[in-house]
Specification:
CATH topology of the largest domain: Butyryl-CoA Dehydrogenase, subunit A, domain 3
GO molecular function, one term: flavin adenine dinucleotide binding
CATH class of the largest domain: Mainly Alpha
Strand order of the largest sheet: 2-3-7-6
Number of helices: 10
Pfam families: Acyl-CoA_dh_1, Acyl-CoA_dh_M, Acyl-CoA_dh_N
CATH architecture of the largest domain: Up-down Bundle
Protein name: Acyl-CoA dehydrogenase
Structural class: alpha+beta
Shape: globular
Family: Belongs to the acyl-CoA dehydrogenase family.
CATH superfamily of the largest domain: Butyryl-CoA Dehydrogenase, subunit A, domain 3
Keywords: FAD, Flavoprotein, Oxidoreductase, Transit peptide
Number of domains: 3
Strand content: 5-15%
Length: 389
């Protein structure tokens, strides 16, 4: 008799992982089960981020996980980083967003574009969670058009003077340092702006209905003076911030798989246990069709991200491939969260269950770091050779 498949891993993706990758997944899964899930609904309700979990995530090596050990990081591969994102977002998108921003949007530009002195100064303390970063690219008017950047930095002797504003910045109110992208006479450049610098202010954004267990802020720069030593010397132009976004988007292809699995699991368990008309809700063909379709879409996303991770580790990944996976996997998760909410009936509208929380969070995930339409057009451009932006 054939062995019954794991309903949450129908293609046995786990068998394709190395022992180290399985250990990483199990460790983060245990952290999510024991430390995140018991409290995250309450934090979401309150609109607060669970600050006390930062030190624990750092201790597990989740911050800057794929950077070399010489900088105090864990030196994991890309697939392990993806699994970290998946298991954290199974808890909440806000948890994955925190790690994604710290790792791929803040530590990565320092590692890839910074001087060795900057790497030695910042990466070890950021890996320990002693210094939190944020990524200042998006502007109030800009959105999907980062080239239309109004924030400017002008040279004045050995310093730079920055003026402008950034909007929708994850971790902004928590951050000790901001990676700020600004127009200069020599193209777009990145600067490390430390909290407490005169003229630099952050204001948290409230009344959110999405990513409530995450800090989202606006950044303001009024004549902010930073030394040239705080400029990232290794890159000029949009390829700098876009390179960071590719790193972060890769993790986002994995994260929503976790959110989808969480919603799918609740839908399966609830429909098995709920009795209507003298039989479990799961005994209805219409319900099984929906659950089967959820499993199909989760399996497709798992295979997509695993192959993407293997290509990233092999150095053959192309940004368009990341766009395709981000588009597919976030749409998959959002659709499953909505359908799971429906299967839970009235119970599905409360944060005592996860689908409505995940659905609300994924409304942000499908928008940030490239909207669904932007990624569709990236794929379209690759296919046709014509830029339709």
């Amino acid at each position: 008799m054939a062995t019954r498949l794991d309903p949450y891993d129908l293609y046995d993706i786990r068998s394709q992982l190395s022992d180290e990758e399985r250990m990483v997944q199990d460790t983060v899964a245990r952290f999510t089960d024991e430390r995140v899930l018991p409290v995250i609904g309450e934090y979401f309700d309150k609109g607060e981020f669970p600050h006390e979990l930062i030190a624990e995530m750092a201790e597990l090596g989740l911050l800057g996980s794929y950077f070399p050990e010489q900088y105090g990081c864990a030196g994991m591969n890309a697939v392990s980083y993806g699994l970290i994102c998946q298991e954290l977002e199974r808890g909440d998108s806000g948890m994955r967003s925190f790690v994604s921003v710290q790792t791929s949007l803040c530590m990565y530009p320092i590692f890839a574009y910074g001087s060795e002195e900057q790497r030695q100064r910042w990466l070890p303390v950021m890996a320990r969670g002693a210094v939190i970063g944020c990524f200042g690219l998006t502007e109030p008017h800009g959105g999907s058009d980062p080239a239309n950047m109004k924030t400017r930095a002008r040279r004045e002797g050995g310093d730079w003077i920055i003026d402008g504003a950034k909007m929708w910045i994850t971790n902004g109110g928590l951050a000790h340092v901001a990676i700020v992208w600004a127009q200069t006479d020599d193209g777009i450049q990145g600067f490390l702006v430390e909290r407490g610098t005169q003229g630099f202010e952050t204001r948290d954004i409230h009344r959110k209905m999405s990513l409530r267990a995450s800090v989202t802020s606006a950044l303001f720069f009024d004549g902010v003076r930073v030394p040239d030593a705080n400029r990232l010397p290794g890159v000029k132009g949009l390829k700098g911030p876009l390179g960071c976004l590719t790193q972060a988007r890769y993790g986002i292809t994995w994260g929503p798989i976790g959110a989808a699995i969480a919603c799918f699991h609740e839908a399966v368990e609830y429909t098995r246990e709920r009795i209507l008309f003298d039989r479990p809700v799961a005994a209805n063909q219409a319900v099984q069709l929906k659950l089967a379709d959820m499993a199909r879409r989760i399996t497709t996303a798992q295979l997509l991200s695993l192959h993407l991770g293997r290509m990233k580790d092999a150095g053959t990944l192309h940004p368009t491939q990341v766009s395709l996976a981000k588009w597919n996997n976030v749409r998959m998760a959002l659709d499953i969260a909505r359908e799971a909410r429906e299967l839970l009936g009235a119970a599905g509208i409360t944060t005592e269950h996860s689908p409505i929380r995940h659905a609300l969070n994924l409304e942000s995930v499908i928008t940030y770091e490239g909207t669904e339409t932007v990624h569709q057009l990236v794929v379209g451009r690759e296919i046709t050779g014509i830029n339709a932006f």
